[in-house]
DNA sequence: CGATCGATGTCAGTTGCTGTCATCACCATA
DNA sequence: TATGGTGATGACAGCAACTGACATCGATCG
């Protein structure tokens, strides 16, 4: 089989460039074809033209290959919170950030669905996804604290924001759901406010 | 070393009774003594007077020994939500359930702290804890739906409830914090309402 | 008394993951 | 141009988590 090499690098060395990208693509393909558990790291490496050992040099474990892009999303959200005007309430700064984050999803809905299906089909992958979301919440709480919001308000706003994100993402990705990210976020946030107001 | 046998069973058979309990205790001890990663399942089994294979017959994996009691907590919370009067708003039914759940912690604060320390010290264990909490949220959402609450309100109330639980638990278990569970829950819930009201 | 059952032991095998050392193109510098 | 350092990879051995298959043997039931 042939491997599509993304981001061909002119300063190529002894090996084919973009080892990490090849590993990622091979893993996504195999996880999709036969499932996460049924795929061995040796198989991923082979399809990428590398060795198992090299896989573990690029990704901490077999799951991480699906999540390492998360770091960029986190940065995006944190910056969005930091950039919100001072007058904006914590929960609304979070909401604004979530809307901005949609830029990373909007237009790649199908890709998101595939990845989501792989993750949803496996408990270990769901665990990893959860801890990434908690890390995100933690980073958002930090960003709020930099805006002068004290705990536990900062933590609560961040955690609640992630809860909204989860609910909104599920809705957005669902077959029958709304496909406009911003709108889904705004609706979910409105529901949140209704619920916590005791209605 | 000797092993304390809890719940001695008069109908003992060929082996020492309460294999599961012995495994659990041995695991807790070893995880505490030398850490989760530094403990092998073979060591746990040996201390419990059993074999590695038997450990995996009682617990799905090395982590699960710390979490299998969670099922009872989930039942307790679900029942509490179900038993709340019809007139109570979703979020308040959740809050009431969280207060009730304190009965499982109150009076065992030290034990909770030990277990919490073990979990906090290891990323894999934190992952497992998170997925258990999500399962809890899911069960609570189901209980709310049985009360006639539609989604996404049910899911949101449940997820938010879990966020409050997390924040409250951290506060309750902290050295300087309040030690009365009910009070911590009520305070945290009040904070939540303030935050989501946009303050 | 014999058959079945349930909890455990035994053992071999797969796989995720790590440590260690070798390789070799590239690069800087003498 | 020679030399030595560097960084990404390969090769290989090994540990530990987990699984499947089969054996064991007291208890229990008919």
List the helices and strands and how they pair.
Two copies of one chain form a homodimer.
Chain A: H1 19-34, H2 41-47, H3 52-58, H4 70-83, H5 90-101, H6 109-120, H7 123-146, H8 153-173, H9 181-196
The structure holds a DNA duplex (30 and 30 nucleotides).
Describe it.
- Two copies of one chain form a homodimer.
- Chain A has about 200 residues and is mainly α.
- The first copy, chain A, folds into two domains: about 20-60, Arc Repressor Mutant, subunit A (Orthogonal Bundle); about 65-195, Tetracycline Repressor, domain 2, CATH 1.10.357.10.
- Chain A has nine helices and no strands.
- Chain A has helices spanning about 20-35, 40-45, 50-60, 70-85, 90-100, 110-120, 125-145, 155-175, 180-195.
- In chain A, helix 4 (about 70-85) crosses helix 5 (about 90-100), helix 5 (about 90-100) packs antiparallel against helix 9 (about 180-195) and helix 8 (about 155-175) packs across helix 9.
- The longest helix of chain A has 24 residues, at about 125-145.
- Chain A is elongated, with a radius of gyration of 19 Å.
- The N and C termini of chain A lie far apart (about 55 Å).
- Chain A binds a DNA duplex (30 and 30 nucleotides) through helix 3.
